[in-house]
Design goal:
Two copies of one chain form a homodimer. By secondary structure, the first copy, chain A, is mainly β. Chain A has a single domain, classed as Acyl-CoA thioesterase, double hotdog domain (Porin), CATH 2.40.160. Chain A contains five helices and 14 strands. In chain A, strands 1, 2, 3, 4, 5, 6, 8, 9, 10, 11, 12, 13 and 14 form a 13-stranded antiparallel sheet that branches. In chain A, β1 and β2 form a beta hairpin. The longest helix of chain A has 14 residues. Chain A is globular and about 50 Å long.
Chain lengths: 269, 269
Amino acid sequence: MSPHAFDVAIALAPQGDGVWQGHTSPAYANMIGPFGGATAAQALNAVLQHPGRQGEPVAFTVNFAAALADGPFLVYARPVRTNRSTQHWIVETRQGEQTVATATAVTALRRDTWGATEVPMPDVPRPRDVAAPGRKGSVEWFNRYDIRFIDGGFPPAWDGADTQDSITQLWVRDNPARPLDFASLTALSDVFFPRIWRRRATMTPIGTVSMTVYFHCSQAQLQATGTGYLLGQAQAQAFRDGYFDQTAQLWNEAGELLVTTHQVVYYKE
Amino acid sequence: MSPHAFDVAIALAPQGDGVWQGHTSPAYANMIGPFGGATAAQALNAVLQHPGRQGEPVAFTVNFAAALADGPFLVYARPVRTNRSTQHWIVETRQGEQTVATATAVTALRRDTWGATEVPMPDVPRPRDVAAPGRKGSVEWFNRYDIRFIDGGFPPAWDGADTQDSITQLWVRDNPARPLDFASLTALSDVFFPRIWRRRATMTPIGTVSMTVYFHCSQAQLQATGTGYLLGQAQAQAFRDGYFDQTAQLWNEAGELLVTTHQVVYYKE
């Protein structure tokens, strides 16, 4: 059996001393450069692969400095502080002499505590009752996900009408299905199409500049989630002078909130 | 006239080549180490002071690796990528050989575009109609802010009752008043007391591990906001296995959304 396209995409060859070599993947190509979720997952994967890593990811921020050129890249992952139960990482992804992405991560040994969720999973139809889009995506990475829009899918017409809100709800999993892990969950955090396209029914050029992922889940919980669908919900809070934000949540089918994630995105007009 | 305590707290002495020396400030002391908002503002200030800076802050993430010891620290701010309209920064704050905070920032030259806000300012009483807390804060930094709780202030009793939600709404500005800028806005993003204290009416030990600030405002807008109050609203989305998140917004009195901000916080139990 050939490996899953996502595993190919995030594969890193150790170069010693916290340096890994990866390669952009045509399977995750975006309009210009690769899908940001793949670039994010590659950066986090260097932390996950690091022999000195302690604990599981709690917080991860990636900044997209430039579109990656097709080809190899190096990821530099450096644990800058190791405490008793937390560890802090600085990550840089480079092509040649150029930095193409920066990231920071916090990993931690988590303990069982009191817990609660304040954003309940929205009441939505089950994945099997929601139609998958009939057409292929216009960008390749979109075909790597089984996305079922519940509400706020692509506008029926790109007519520039202001729809007054930017909410999208969807079910999503890797296509073909793949057991969930921290790397794929990171990529899935970037699976929403640009909120400004949703809000304005206009395909203005965009580019995510920074994304933060907070993990509210353990490895065991991800294993239990397995190849199930995730419910994603995303909305912008503000569009102003060329940048908008997006705030999003990902739940598993059991209704557990796995991730809260935020990003800020450049838009042209 | 003596300088404002906040200006003293974020003052940095250039050491050459992107390195600055600062000093922790007793005026912003927290239970252990300084107020995280001050540490965040100091790190951002190194970017703001950098002679090579291009544009204004759009995204800023700071990771708190350790409580700072009282005394001097060095901030290392490095522009790792400068594009036509965006610039990417890696920042480290160190004491001796130890990294105490890491940060990344994106600064950008912003252009006038179509804009909208999807989270309207809540309908609340004006600042002058909301009482300031009568008592001094138990930590010094709290006295550096004029905070007027509208809803979700400190629990009337620390009795461990689960209040079922963690929302707080407050008016806030520096005390004494100080014209708003990107550094003070960064500190103000961390002004909310821990959501778990609010939710559970229990002062369990906590520590913010990572905070992200998205700026939806220009320098001109901050100048126009001046010494006015900001309306802050904060809520946790999930408390799980020792970490909870907080998502928050800050509006000026004119109802403009200046900041959306997120953090993840360790809690003991």
